[in-house]
Amino acid sequence: MGSGPSRVVTLDGDDAAAVDLPCRQKGRPTVLDPKDLYELDPDQPEPGELDAPVLVHVLSGFIDAGHAGRLASDHLLAALDHRVIARFDLDQLYDYRARRPPMVFGGDRWESVEMPKLELSMVQDAAGVPFLILSGPEPDVQWERFIAAVQQLAEHFGVRMTVGLHAIPMAVPHTRPAGITAHASRPELVEGHPPWVGRVQVPGHVTGLLELRMAEQGKDAAGFAVHVPHYLTQTEWPEAASTLVQAVGSLGGLTLPTEALDRAADEMRAAVTGQIQDQPEVAAVVRALEEQYDAFVGARGRSLLASETSELPTADELGAELERYLAEENERRGREG
């Protein structure tokens, strides 16, 4: 991170200009110098190694139904060659009392702590094309300064487009393909993705704010929110993660593997279906969701946001037993893995 006294910058145009005194221009926030939030790793890309890469950002802390965003990010970093090229100083961004890091106590001493990390990695897709992944916890504070830092890094590495990922609960059945809500700074970036919802107000989040700020600068920015059955939001749902990975690959022209996610999705779908067969009431609700989904897809007649379908059973009414079973299934798979 930077040394010496903190500077104040006013964000205006493509670059942030350093100034000595706080000031504010109309419509642009004033923040402390964003460069003091991160440091570049000594192992930087060689000249020409990055050619207008896509930057994928996956930040935990907002809605991530079915843990789809985390699964997608973890999968890509596990399956593809990568290295960290920049690290953020989370002591300036993270509320440790709100999201306490886990520590291990060994009977008579503290053995370890798992501290959060917010890192920018350079990743090689299956065809050797490099792209970037920004992953870690969503900052609790200094959102505008953090976004200014990401914009600086995007400019530094010549990023041509940013893509944000997360997952939302929807009143959809697990027996239908996972849908996706796509949005972008230019409509042509998400052609082929028909809208699922109209104009709505939602809680702010860094992923959305970054897309907005990039668009305001005239940069290409997009985002994908995959739809997860609202009765499975607390369960790892690999199908949704696979859908996100495929969407990124298609938009960014990247060759991204999904085989491991697809195998896990088949296993989880079979487990859910088997559990539902033993519970006629749950099966009836799933059939009702199927009918609603099919009618909606045919007519595109109304929103399927779970919060807007009050006549449907709640997640608690639908799947308390199902959630218990799936939690046990996740634990079993973890032991066997």
Describe the structure.
The chain is α+β, with helices and mostly antiparallel strands. 34% of the residues lie in helices and 22% in strands. The chain has seven helices and 13 strands. The protein has helices at residues 68-79, 143-156, 206-216, 238-252, 259-277, 280-299, 315-336; strands spanning 8-11, 16-19, 30-32, 38-40, 54-60, 82-88, 103-105, 110-113, 119-124, 130-137, 161-170, 180-184, 220-229. Strand 1 and strand 2 form a beta hairpin. Helix 4 (238-252) runs antiparallel to helix 5 (259-277) and helix 5 crosses helix 7 (315-336). The chain starts with 7 loop residues before the first strand and ends with a helix.
Give a quick summary of the entry:
The chain has 337 residues and is an alpha+beta fold. Helices cover 34% and strands 22% of the residues.
CA distance, first residue to last residue: 38 Å
Reported CATH architecture: 3-Layer(aba) Sandwich
Radius of gyration: 21 Å
Let me know the CATH homologous superfamily: PAC-like subunit
Total count of domains: 1
Shape descriptor: globular
Number of strands: 13
| Helical segment count | 7
Mean pLDDT value:
86
- The order of strands across the largest sheet is 4-6-9-10-5-11-13-12
Could you name the CATH topology?
Rossmann fold
* N-to-C SSE string, H for helix and E for strand: EEEEEHEEEEEHEEHEHHHH
Instruction: Indicate the structural class.
Output: alpha+beta
Low confidence ranges: 12-26, 308-315
Helicity, as a percent range: 25-40%
What is the CATH class designation?
Alpha Beta
- What characterizes the major β-sheet? 8 strands, mixed
Beta-strand content: 15-25%
